[in-house]
């Protein structure tokens, strides 16, 4: 199993550009989440999904959209990038049958100029 | 509402010394608690977790943590630090019934002195 994969690893955007961060998992996990990590702030939940077709907002959803058309994929879209969205983004997945252990991807480092 | 406070953003210990990373939580219901480790330029991986049962939880790489309800604490310890333990450590609490609603602390960077 590849586990949780994320692409790209690095990305530089200009203010106002849009892009999609990709996340995929091959463990047949129902739950998937997106976090952003900023220095001194730990990880903050952006959006999450408890199954295909179901998504909900986390702590910091503004400026981000998600969709979950399949169990495997959970892309994160930035509609109009802002410098405040410069961060490291992590995708995670878990299964309710595994008592809440989350499996994390390697992260995407995004810089918005 | 649940939250997590990690005391000390940076801890430095000598190789072979005791490691103690502090975590306090607030929760209106019995919590699920976690410690994750992040090595440089990598994602997070689970060290250990407390759900129910025994309050002393053993994890990977010789780490353990004790759930103390009276102190609302879940401190992480390791008797003897190794150079390979240098990393950032995150305490987390599960919020609500969804496994996706996990709240992380701000992290503690552990440095090991030779």
Verbal overview:
The complex is a heterodimer of chains A (about 110) and B (about 110). By secondary structure, chain A is mainly beta. Helix content of chain A is about 0%, strand content about 50%. In chain A, strands 2, 4, 5, 6, 9, 10 and 11 form a seven-stranded mixed sheet that branches. A four-stranded antiparallel sheet of chain A has the order 1-3-8-7, with no helix packed on it. Chain A is globular. Chain A starts with a strand and ends with a strand. The model of chain A has no long low-confidence stretch (mean pLDDT about 90). Chain B is an all-beta fold. In chain B, strands 2, 4, 5, 9, 10 and 11 form a six-stranded mixed sheet that branches. Chain B has a five-stranded antiparallel sheet with strand order 1-3-8-7-6, with no helix packed on it. Chain B is globular. Chain B starts with a strand and ends with a strand. The chains are: A mainly beta (about 110), B mainly beta (about 110). At the A-B interface, strand 4, strand 5 and strand 9 of A face strand 5 and strand 10 of B.
